[in-house]
Every structure is written in C-alpha cells, then in structure tokens.
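Suppose you are handed a protein chain with no further information: no name, no annotation, nothing but its sequence. What can you learn? This example shows the usual starting point.
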Amino acid sequence: MGINDKASVKSQYNTSENLSTRISIHDKYSTNKQGFGNWITSHYEIATGMKVLELGCGTGSMWVGKGELIKKCSKLILSDFSEGMLDKTKETLREYEGIEYQVIDIQDIPYADNTFDIVIGNMMLYHVPDLYKGLSEVSRVLKKNGKFYCATYGENGIMEYVYGLFADRGVEATTKNTSFTLQNGAEKLSKVFLKVIRYNYIDSLEVTNLDDLADYVYSLTGMSELKEIPRETMLKVFKENSVDGILRVPKDYGMFVAEV
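A reasonable first move is to predict its three-dimensional structure. Written in structure tokens, the prediction is:
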C-alpha cells in the first residue's frame, strides 16, 4: 500500500491520537517559541467579509485563540478527509461561532468555481494521491487573485536526523514521502498557480524526555524501518547523542503562498 494511498491516509488520520502525539513534541521542545501554528496564521491576509476554506484542518488547534480572525470571515469552512479528525476539530473549537465543518477530499471539492478568497491546506499535500488534481481543484474554487496557503516540511528535518542516527545499523528511509516538500513544492505549485512565494520557519527541538521523541517516531505509521527498532535500543541511541541531557534535533518547516 502506497504512502499516498487513500485507505492508508484515512487509517493514519482516522482518529486524532497520532496527530496529537506529533503536535505535542513541538509544543514541548521547540526553540522557536512563536509556535509553528501561530507563525502560519500570521501570514494569513484575511480581510473582513472573505470566504475561507481549510482543507485537512486536522485537530483545528491552529484556530484556537484566533477568534478575531474567525469573525472576519463571512464564511469559514474547516474540512478534513477524516470524519474522526473532524469530530476532534469540532470539540477543539466548540466555543467558537461562525464555523462550518465538512468532510471534503481536496481532489473533489464540492463548490463552484471562484467561490473562495482564501484556501488553506497545511501539512497535507504530501498525502494527496493525485496532487495536480488536488491543486487544480484549489485553483478552480479560488477567486481571481485569491490565495492558497500551504505549509509543509522540508527534506532535512526531524526524521532525516533520526534516520541518520541509525544509519550504521542498516536502517534506511525507504518509505520517505517527498511528493510535496519545501524543496520541490514551488515547482509543483507553479504548474497551477501564477505566483508562488516560499517562507522558511526557523526552529529546532531540544528534547529532554527521550521517550517523547520515541513516541513521535512510533506515531508515524509509514516509518516501518524505524518502528521495528526496539524502544530500549532507540532510547539508548538517543541518549548517546544527547549533550548535557538534551538531544538537539533540526527542523525543516515552512510554507508557500500561491496566487491564481
């Protein structure tokens, strides 16, 4: 089963548990205290009365504390491919009014042409089976001069670092997903959008509880090579590479803003 297979993606995100595990390590150990979610939303240019669609909204945590931004939208639709994830989003944002929730596949967006001023698709494009179909759908539903915000990871981040720690044990990243990264995303977006700008998020992890990093690794369902490593061995290697009780892990994240 491929890493972008629909059933595989749905299984990985059927509930919010794995995603929450991955989010928590960033909350605990990131050196950039602004927070990736806050950094992403700081780029949103949402004017009063705009219609906004988010695809792959995850747990909805990026909208927490963004009540004023939500109020600006004449329509705000948060959607996800997973019903289980959408249930978590509704729970997370239950105190906020003016939000619609819908199960949507980016490859088949159920709205007319030129409907939205802004479309958002963060940390999800690398899961889309037919990326260009998905991007074409986003372009179709955007109004002229509309913007598409899409954060993603790079190819020199956390998992590349972790794989490197186990390289001498014969562990190789054979299932690495590079279908949409910071390094190749601009080229792919440019085939559909007229203008593409890339922004880099400067950050790293300083992990003090190595069990948290192990939990992160095991939460990634596609990393079968690493998940076969016994937890005791993984923790031993993490400890060997720590300095003064801290394992310093690089991060490679950023986002693109594309315009039609």
